[in-house]
Write a structure and sequence with these properties.
Oligomer: single chain
CATH class of the largest domain: Mainly Alpha
Largest sheet: none
Order of helices and strands: HHHHHHHHH
CATH superfamily of the largest domain: CHAD domain
Number of helices: 9
Number of strands: 0
Number of domains: 2
CATH architecture of the largest domain: Alpha solenoid
Length: 209
């Protein structure tokens, strides 16, 4: 499998996860639907980061993905807040307020994914993936890199992701909240990259011995 073939497979997987949860999110009543669509979107962002040397989604598409991320992220964050309130004291008024706000944000996320704007984003993503839209801005070096076997690319990508985690991990003891958040993000990107390549490996036929 080439780097480009892997990019196709990985991006399609992310898009399928986003589309597969649209109905649940649009209902405005599914915290899990919001979570799963957000995971699909974050996986797609991680995929773009993983392949950033050989393909880019373009400014407009990136902006629309950020818009969707903000809608889903707000709803997900408040759903999580509602399940992590302190125990042992009467938090009923606060709990009701948090849950009400979470429901409001889920409805907002539902309206977002039921909108024409979301339809346009899906069409753009489908077109970008199905037509290898990244080739429009690719230079000779990128085209050559896209045609290379995946193995070396995967090794280098994972090595780079592990090095980023290690670098930020060495500063963990003195890190503030921002620093810890950056470490969490780096670890999540490493996990997504590992899962992407594992997914590809499972699809490859095993040679007979």
């Amino acid at each position: 499998m080439t780097v480009e073939q892997a990019a196709h497979a990985i991006l399609r997987s992310c898009l399928e996860q986003m589309e597969g949860n649209r109905k649940a999110v649009a209902s405005g009543h599914s915290p899990e639907g919001v979570h799963q669509m957000r995971v699909g979107m974050r996986r797609m962002r991680s995929a773009f980061k993983l392949f950033e040397d050989v393909l880019q989604p373009g400014t407009r598409m990136s902006r629309e993905i950020d818009w969707l991320g903000a809608e889903l992220g707000a709803a997900r964050d408040w759903d999580v807040k509602g399940t992590h309130l302190p125990q042992g004291i009467d938090m009923s008024p606060l709990r009701r307020a948090v849950r009400a706000h979470a429901r409001q944000l889920r409805r907002s996320a539902g309206e977002a994914v039921a909108s024409k704007r979301f339809d346009a984003l899906l069409r753009s993503l489908h077109h970008f993936i199905d037509t290898s839209g990244w080739r429009k801005r690719a230079g000779d070096r990128q085209v050559k890199a896209l045609a290379q076997p995946l193995d070396d690319f995967a090794k280098q990508a994972l090595k780079k992701a592990r090095a980023r985690v290690a670098k930020r991990g060495r500063k963990l003891k003195k890190a503030d909240e921002h620093g810890r958040h950056r470490l969490r993000i780096a670890m999540k990107k490493l996990r997504y990259a590992s899962e992407f390549f594992e997914q590809i490996a499972r699809r490859k036929p095993r040679s007979k011995r």
